[in-house]
Design a protein that fits this description.
single chain; Serine Threonine Protein Phosphatase 5, Tetratricopeptide repeat
Amino acid sequence: MKNLPQPDTSAEISQTITQQIGTYLQTAETFVEAGDHEQALDIYQKVLSLDDQNVPALTQQCLFLNQRNEPESALLACQDLLVAHPENVVALWGLGKANYDMGFYDNALDYYDQALGQSPGYAPAWDGRNAAHRALQDR
């Protein structure tokens, strides 16, 4: 009787997925360093298909979607990041920026203040906070 191959154990599958995620993240970082954020974003999507709570991929997705001025998509990505990593300063800043870009200046101000509560020296949050204040004053 022939020995049939044994199915992979859940530990082996988990290890394979972890290695694959690591490889994807390294590849994405190479694209980021080369300035090819579109390719990097595609790879971060692959990571998130394997691990929807992956903080590095969620962080980059939040940042890139804000940089591309896609506030609705950025809002969702940054919310996902905040769920995965509460009190994440990038998520809070990203939520502030997305709200600002959609014209919700009061909400933006709240998120920028939360980001500054986590990291008082975080310059992007200060810049966003100042912009939101100016926008509210200009109403």
